[in-house]
Specification:
membrane; transmembrane; 135 residues; DUF2069 domain-containing protein; transmembrane helix; DUF2069_membrane; mainly alpha
């Protein structure tokens, strides 16, 4: 027996949630990039490595995701959910090291929050698009 399709939420219910989750996602996306930049420029002990090389390696995935995030594409937010797991893992590993514990905890919290908000945006945006198309 096939499952019955669940009805889509109303546009009045979806609209504020789509806007709020997008704004939260963008703020957290920028906050993560700033956290990484500030940490590497001001506090990181890179043991002689070039700062700009380390920053480029760490910020490259975020730069690749930036167009989709800033344009509000649901697929861009979905890809962010996949890639942001790298920063979550990096944050957990940094939180274990006492010299980087504050950075690690902040990175973990920001990346987890970004994952949740981008996931909700993706879900609600696709539902809103389906509802607008007449489904």
């Amino acid at each position: 027996m096939a499952k019955a399709k669940k009805p889509l939420p109303s546009l009045e219910w979806l609209q504020p949630r789509v806007q709020a989750s997008r704004i939260i996602s963008l703020v957290l996306f920028v906050a993560l990039a700033l956290l990484i930049a500030v940490w590497n420029l001001g506090f990181a002990d890179l043991h002689g490595a070039r700062t700009w090389v380390v920053m480029c390696i760490q910020l490259l995935p975020l730069l690749l995701l930036a167009p989709g995030m800033f344009l509000g594409h649901a697929r861009g937010h979905a890809w962010t959910c996949f890639v942001i797991n790298l920063y979550f893992i990096q944050g957990i590993l940094a939180a274990i090291d006492p010299s980087r514990a504050v950075f690690g905890v902040l990175e973990t919290i920001i990346s987890f929050s970004l994952f949740c908000s981008a996931l909700l945006y993706t879900r609600w945006k696709f539902q809103q698009d389906r509802k607008l198309s007449g489904e």
